[in-house]
Q: What sequence folds into this?
């Protein structure tokens, strides 16, 4: 294994992305409602922030074609995808307007809620922070749903999961 040390900058963006890919993350699909219907985006930049008050964050790329929908929304749901939902996550990554491949309903705030996800965090906007080429979206969690099951993991450009220990 070759070790590489560098200072991140514009000429090292690929190497920086590769180093960040060493950290395995869960896969989420974030949904919101717009005046033009529901929207979804797949993201792995999800994290807890605070237990009291209950806050979570995710990061939205400023060059995303869904930036307007998610940077202006007031309510949204973050869905932690189960290991068997890779195809659904990929479809939402390609097209955030097509919900035909998913079972979903809306809650009283109009948030689209996907069925069978591992966990769901129904949020309203707490804060937005500019951060380089991304917008950090901090949500106050209004309601949580979770169930047992295996989560979908993303690491080094690949999807996977955990092996059960016997």
A:
């Amino acid at each position: 294994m070759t070790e590489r040390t560098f200072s991140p900058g514009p000429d090292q963006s690929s190497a920086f992305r590769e180093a960040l890919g060493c950290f395995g993350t869960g896969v989420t699909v974030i949904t919101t409602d717009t005046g033009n219907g529901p929207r979804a985006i797949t993201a792995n930049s999800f994290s807890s922030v605070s237990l009291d008050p209950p806050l979570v964050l995710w990061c939205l790329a400023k060059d995303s074609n869904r930036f307007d929908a998610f940077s202006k929304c007031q309510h949204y749901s973050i869905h932690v995808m189960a290991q068997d939902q890779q195809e659904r996550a990929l479809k939402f990554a390609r097209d955030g307007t097509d919900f035909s491949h998913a079972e979903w309903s809306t809650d009283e705030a109009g948030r689209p809620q996907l069925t069978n996800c591992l966990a769901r965090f129904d949020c309203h906007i707490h804060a937005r922070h500019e951060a380089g080429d991304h917008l950090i979206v901090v949500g106050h969690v209004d309601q949580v749903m979770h169930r047992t099951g295996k989560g979908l993991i993303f690491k080094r450009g690949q999807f996977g999961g955990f092996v059960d220990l016997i």
